[in-house]
Structure formats: structure tokens, C-alpha cells
Amino acid sequence: MFALIDADAFYCSCEILFEPSLRGRPLVVLSNGDGCVVSRTEEAKALGVKMGQPMFQLRYLVRSKGLVARSSNYELYAEISDRFMSLAAGLGPLIEQYSIDESWLGDLDGIKDLTRRAHAIRSRILRWVGIGSGVGIAPSKTLAKLCNLVAKNSSRKPGSYPSELAYVCNWADLDPDTRRLLLQRTEVGDVWGIGGKLAPQLISRGVMTALDLANMPPGYVRSTWGLVMERTVRELNGISCIPLEEIPPSRQQIAVTRSFGKPVWELPLLIEAVSEFTSMAAEKLRKGKLRAGAIHVFIRTSPFRHSPRFYNSAVMQLGAPTSDSKVLVGAAISALKSIFEPDYLLAKAGVILLDLTPATQQQQDLLAPPAERDQSLLMEAMDSINAKYGRGTLHVASLADERIRSSTWRPKQQMRSPRYTTRLDEIPVVHA
């Protein structure tokens, strides 16, 4: 048996957690640069706000309907996510974190009264963290995802599914007629793995619901759409084809790209920005216990601004795979200097780490100087200090101190809430 626990409108929930006056109001959280909607409350959905919708299209709702917008506060969201996941892990012995607000739990077959346990874990998360969630339990991942949808929609969309399945839906507790009803009421586009591209093809063939898809002959599905679609059909019939991944597969690359808050045309500001992007990517690299063999740096102007266009990029091969921030930042700066040209109003830059390999598979160079072999310990110490005192407490020299760091190139975050749980100078103050 598998379980999927998923937080309710996670980014919005984190904002409401520290600003309770937002509860019950239409709220959206925006992407980097305050561009598009990446999270929305039910009240915002009722106003017709779509995921990915540009903010400039919603300004009339701010004026006429009281829509509230917040800039992304990923530092806060990541810390709240850690709390959420630590409690979610109590549901089962095996866990796979699927995203910042979703986790799969596995090996649940021997747990007695699993539905009651799921309700208890969900209630504990709500009490201790303050974030609502839904839990779906089933013999396959695809069915668990569908049950999670049922659990969440039963509470927030009365009448869509049976109300007794609100918050927790366990496929094993349902009789055949109820299972058929759930599949019949679920649109085929809402099935995990189908999405917006495959749904129109299926609908054109009369496959309108999850029940229609589950009833399709697997051989026909495979010959028409391939093995992945056949696997989805089998999973909808309770046959587990997608295992739990306690250790996620190695990533092919790690990218950190940002649009600038204002145009940048000076090399020192670009060096500062690229140094920060590379440091962030290196931190992700070490967290994943990986090393990079090459680094790709690019800069470009805006395609929407009426000014000369420019795009350039460079890839630097590293002498040996590394996760050392100093080495990576040095290579990124060299790549940047090789492609930079003055007088262009640059709007975006990015760093992509390539040729990733597990750190455990790299043979140590016994001929390297001792100081060079000790760099991993230095990086571990830097990560520990930054985790305790805040990102950027220790950093490479090309990244200026946060107190004097330029804000010219930084993405717009004009509506960001305080980082309540990770910055000492932004902790809430209560006056009694």
C-alpha cells in the first residue's frame, strides 16, 4: 500500500500561517520576479484566477475584489516544509519526498487501522505546524494520487465526491460501487500522468473519465500511446507498476537562473549575481551528494524590451568533478568574462551545473595536496554555519556582504513577507 500526503495550497498556507488576517481572503503567491501565479487559495480560484496567470492581468482584481498578492518566500517555505515532512514521516516506514509539499509513504501493508492513523497524522500536522493537508491511500501510486484528489476535493468542493471521504481517502476501505463512482467522477485529465497533452487525445476517442481509462485494454493502450500509458491503466486497476524511490535518481543537471529586477550592463554587478547563482547551485549539489564536471553560464537581454538584443553562453570543463563553491564560482566568473560585452541591457543570467556524478563514485586523487583534499570538510563547515545563521553568512569573496550587496540585479520581491523562521532580524515581535 502507498499513501500520498499533500499540503493544501502550500505557499499560500505558509503566508496565512504568519498572517492570519489573510484567512478567507483571495490570496495568490507569485513566481520569481513577481511574474505569474504559482499558488492560490480557493477564494482566488473563485475569482477565476488561473495557475501561471501573469500578475499584470490580475491588477483589476486587486482593486475591485480585494485580491492579495505575495512574492515568493522560498526560504520560509522550505523551512516549513521540513517541519511538515518530519511529521508526515510518521505515517509509514518508507518515505519519498515528491515535492516541497508532497510525500509518498510506502510499506504500509502491516499497519493496522491505517485510515485512523492517517487522520491522526494529518491532525497532528495541522496542530503543530498549522498547515492543512489531504491523504490518499491505495495499492498503487496512481490510485493513491487519485484518492488524494478525492480527499481534498471532498472537503473544499462539496458534492464533487462523497463527504465522508474528506481529508483521508483509503481505497482499501471502499466497496466496489464506491470505487467505481470515484473513477467515474474523476475527469481523465485529472489522472496522474495524463495532463493537458494526452487528455484531448483520449477525449477525442470517448475516454472522458478515469473509469473509461481504467477499462481500456492494456495492449491497445500500449500500441497506441506506449508503455507509460499502459502502466497508468494497470495502476488504475490496482496493479502497482511504479515503485517507491527512497533515494531519488541522480539529476542530470542543476540550474539556478533569475531575471533581474532592473537591467544590468556592468560587469561587477554581473559577477556578483553569477557568484550568488553558482553558490546556490553548489549548495544544492552538496545536498544531493553530487559533483559537477562542467558549468554552463549564460546572459541575455529581454525579448520584450525595444533595445539591441544579445545572448551568449559558455561552458567551462572542470579539471575534476567537484562540489567546491570556490572552484565552481571561479569557473563561472571565467566563463562570464569570456562572453560579456558592454552596453547591452541584460535582463537575465543563469548557471547550470553539468556532468553530475555521485560523490561516492569519485575516486580520491591521492596525489593532490592535503589542503586540496580537505576542501570537502571546509564546504561542510560552511553549509553548517549557513544553515544555522542564515544563507550567505559565509560566502565566496566575489559575493559582497549582504549589508552592502547591490539590489539592482535582484528579482522583484516587492510583496515578500518576512522570513519569520530563518532570519533573526525578521522574527515577529509581539507588543503586550
Low-pLDDT stretches: none
With helices defined by DSSP (H or I, 4 residues minimum), what is the helix count?
15
| Radius of gyration computed on alpha carbons | 24 Å
Mean pLDDT: 87
Question: Which structural traits does this protein have?
Answer:
432 residues, 19% strand, globular, five-stranded mixed β-sheet, five-stranded antiparallel β-sheet, 15 helices, alpha+beta
What features would you describe in this structure?
- There is one protein chain.
- Helices cover 38% and strands 19% of the residues.
- It is an alpha+beta fold.
- A five-stranded mixed beta sheet has the order 5-6-1-7-8.
- Helix 10 packs antiparallel against helix 11.
Short description:
With 432 residues, this protein is an alpha+beta fold. It has helices at residues 10-18, 42-46, 59-65, 74-88, 114-128, 141-156, 176-185, 195-204, 210-214, 218-225, 227-236, 267-287, 325-339, 370-373, 375-389; strands at residues 2-7, 27-30, 37-40, 68-71, 94-99, 102-106, 133-138, 168-170, 254-264, 290-301, 311-322, 346-354, 357-358. The strands form three sheets. A five-stranded mixed β-sheet has the order 5-6-1-7-8. Strands 9, 10, 11, 12 and 13 form a five-stranded antiparallel β-sheet that branches.
Topology:
Blueprint: E1 2-7, H1 10-18, E2 27-30, E3 37-40, H2 42-46, H3 59-65, E4 68-71, H4 74-88, E5 94-99, E6 102-106, H5 114-128, E7 133-138, H6 141-156, E8 168-170, H7 176-185, H8 195-204, H9 210-214, H10 218-225, H11 227-236, E9 254-264, H12 267-287, E10 290-301, E11 311-322, H13 325-339, E12 346-354, E13 357-358, H14 370-373, H15 375-389
Parallel strand pairs: 2-4, 7-8
Antiparallel strand pairs: 1-6, 1-7, 2-3, 5-6, 9-12, 10-11, 10-12, 10-13
Helix pairs in contact: 10-11, 12-13
